[in-house]
Amino acid sequence: MTATSSRRPTAADPAVTGQAAPEDLRALFGQSIAVFASLAGPVHLVEAANPAFFAAIGQERARTGIPLADLMPELVDQGFIALLDQVYRTGEPYTGRDARVMLGSGPHEREAFFDYTYEPRRDADGNVIGIRVIGVEITQVKHAQRLMAEHRALLEQIARQAPLTDVLDGMARCIENLAPQEVLVSVLLADPDGRHLRHGAAPSLPDFYNQAIDGITIGEGVGSCGTAAHRRQPVIVTDVTADPLWTDFRHLAEEAGLAACWSTPILAADGTLLGTFAMYHRTPRVPQDTDLAFTRVFAGTAALAIERHHGEQARQAAEARAKAAHDELAKAIQAERRLRAEAEQRAADAAELAARMRAAAAAQAARPRPEHCQLGGTEGCTAPAEIKIADSWGDAAWGCTVHVEEALINVRSVFIANEQPDGLGAYLNR
Fold it and tell me: GAF domain spans which residues (predicted)?
């Protein structure tokens, strides 16, 4: 707040002559968006005020002929009556900028901001006889500025793909900081089964309360959040001690020190339920315009963050499935290569055995039965030659039981062709 000077009034001014009739004031300020009131005497008696003044302080207080301190007792402790006393005493006007004032009391109390001026009213002799209050309420502008700044920061978080828990927690704290009165914010997320709500964010609610409502059923009469999710509509409970929606949760709210809860469903663009956004208060409260603005803006922001999170989860799941399929394909290719290598090795082994048989057959032509196994390959085999085998091409060889069995398994059309009766028995009894 800063002080400023005003021009010296002249005798031609209606306020100076004391002839400013209420109808003249109404004609001058009656339809203005500016707040105007004419106060008289050191007690600041409200002589006249325009509709904007009474709209600002509450229509239930639209009365004249009463001291301002009696009409608006909340101004006393906030210093505004003292400023009026100062202007009346000194005759110097006072101008306030971006002045914050709490108007009303109880459930209807609200935060407001004004640009205003207190101007002294004088009689013909220049004596101060009262004060003119002229101002413009800028509450919506102030709230919009703060709201836009915080909202922009949240959108940047979402764009950077910050974790959903961080975004929701930041959003809850943002609202709690912006709200003119203490408010506790909660975000519950719709469970994939579509029948329950799960904890999303609630930085200021007690842990026992968050744990108790984690997983609550979506349905009529399940507090504010369960009912809002069921109805797909906002549910405003101004006093949980008297509302039937809170019958089953009243003891829990009392333990947590909660007296009011306004819940709004968070819906996707296609109408799918994503969760709920709730604002709790410790005293019974009726929502003000600021509260409704918070709800509209941040419920939409939460929907954007949750949908973005679901999309990211779907993308990651698709990538995981693609990677798993790629890994399985790689395993199949490796297995096929191993089988092919094993088959090629078996073919090579069979060719080598066939070559041994041919070599043995050629050696047998010189002597009917060798002393040692002929099927040992380049390393040779010192085992006794016990069994004769042959193939369909007429090649024959003598070998030990080990190499004969290897040939029978790996070389096509190989059979035992022993010239002695005990040859087959030697193989069977190996």
Answer: 150-316
Shared domain check, 174 and 271: yes
* pLDDT of residue 138 exceeding 70: yes
Q: Do 167 and 311 belong to one domain?
A: yes
**Residue 52 reports pLDDT greater than 50:** yes
Distance (Å, whole) CA 360 – CA 374: 6
pLDDT tens-digit readout, 384-419 = 888 888 877 777 888 888 888 888 887 777 888 776
Among the three residues 110, 137, 164, which one is the final residue of a domain in this structure? 137
Question: Does residue 117 sit in the same domain as residue 70?
Answer: yes
Distance between CA atoms of residues 136 and 359, nearest Å: 116
Same domain, 102 and 232: no
Residue 346 falls within a domain, yes or no? no
Kindly state whether residues 371 and 417 are assigned to the same domain.
Answer: yes
User: Most distant CA pair in the chain: distance in Å?
Assistant: 157
What is the span of the domain harbouring residue 418?
A: 367-428
Q: Are residues 282 and 297 in the same domain?
A: yes
Q: Which of 273, 297, 315 is the last residue of a domain?
A: 315
Alpha carbon separation from 254 to 140, 144, 428 (Å, rounded): 33, 34, 91
Per-residue b/e over 120-146, b at no fewer than 16 CB within 10 Å? bbbeeeeebbbbbbbbebbbeebbeee
